Structure formats: structure tokens, C-alpha cells
Amino acid sequence: MATVEDTSFKRDMLKTVPSLRAFAVSLCGHQDLADDLVQDTIMKAWAKQDSFAAGTNIKAWLFTILRNEFYSQMRKSGREIQDSDNVFTERLSTHPAQYGAMDLRDFREALNKLPSDQREAIILVGASGFSYEEAAEICHCAIGTIKSRIARARGKLQELLDITGETEFGPDANSASVVSRAFVSRPG
């Protein structure tokens, strides 16, 4: 019979699955491998739940397990499948029809060109919502190192995406006028 602690642990752990999956995809680059990595992480966490200190940050604990599992698998495999021309990625993904799909694809490509330590840091802080301190703990490095990695990653992303100012975010003038007319003419 499950105890209250087991139920609480399970609930808190399952809440982090979407974030774990996003982080796993960013690490390994393939959705199917990311799903396997998240499953391995959940299984290890469940088996080792007695080592989790209740009241601490379960999300950081799970991200650390996932990260360690990823690097363990990388060491075991001895090599990584290179997909520099996106042949495998293009077969696995379908481009969404909604607005911004091209920008998202460009961003993904730029993100994948970052060194793994910079990509990991910017995803932990920028996309997953961890503080610099939590990200440093997950990556087993100093806070200054995380800040440096993020600064370098942001600079490199701006360079790769050819971003020179805030006006380059969002829809272009033509798209904005079409979208605004559609919302104005729609009965409310």
C-alpha cells in the first residue's frame, strides 16, 4: 500500500516530466532518445527515492539524475551519432503550421551549434527556470561558470541568428498587419 510520502513524491516527480523531457531533447537531440532518457531517469529516481531529502528541490534532483544518466550513456556508447546535415532530424520531425515555425527551426539549429556546456546552461536557466545557483549545482560547477556560459551562449545565439536589436523579435510588418486585421474583424 502506498504511503502519503510515496504519493507526494510520485506527484511531485510526475509534475517535472515535461521539463525533464525538454531538457533531455536538448541534450541528445532526438525525441525518441530523450523519451528513453526520461524513462531511465524516472526509474532511477523511483528506485532511489529514499536518498531524496524531502523538502528540497526535486526538480533539480531529477535534472541532476537525468544529466548524469545522459553522460553515463554517452561514455558507454563511446560515440555520438552525428547529424550535422539534419538528415535524421528532418525525418523525425514535422514542421508546425502555426506562426513562428521558421523562427523556431532557426533557433533550434542555432542552439544545436552551441557547445554542449553553453547549451546546457542556457536551457537550464532560460528555458527550465532554474536559478544560476541551481543550474551550477546541477552542472557541478561554480555560479560564475554558469553565468559565463550563459553570456557566451547568448552572444553566440545573437551572432548565429543575426539579431541586432529588439525589433527583430515577433512578426514582421506585413504579418503583424494581417494578424491585427484578423483580430479586429473577428466578432467578439
TrEMBL record:
One BP term from GO: DNA-templated transcription initiation
UniProt keyword annotation of Transcription present: yes
Top-level taxon: Bacteria
RNA polymerase sigma factor 70 region 4 type domain ranges (all copies): 105-157
PROSITE patterns: SIGMA70_ECF (PS01063)
The UniProt record lists the keyword Metal-binding: no
Example GO molecular function: sigma factor activity
InterPro entries found in the cross-reference section: RNA_pol_sigma-70-like (IPR039425), RNA_pol_sigma-70_dom (IPR014284), RNA_pol_sigma70_ECF_CS (IPR000838), RNA_pol_sigma70_r2 (IPR007627), RNA_pol_sigma70_r4_t2 (IPR013249), RNA_pol_sigma_r2 (IPR013325), RNA_pol_sigma_r3/r4-like (IPR013324), WH-like_DNA-bd_sf (IPR036388)
All copies of domain RNA polymerase sigma-70 region, residue ranges: 17-79
Coiled-coil residue windows: none
Keywords for this protein: DNA-binding, Sigma factor, Transcription, Transcription regulation
Gene3D superfamilies: 1.10.1740.10, Winged helix-like DNA-binding domain superfamily/Winged helix DNA-binding domain
PANTHER family given in the database record: RNA POLYMERASE ECF-TYPE SIGMA FACTO, RNA POLYMERASE SIGMA FACTOR RFAY-RELATED
Assigned protein family: Belongs to the sigma-70 factor family. ECF subfamily.
Protein name: RNA polymerase sigma factor
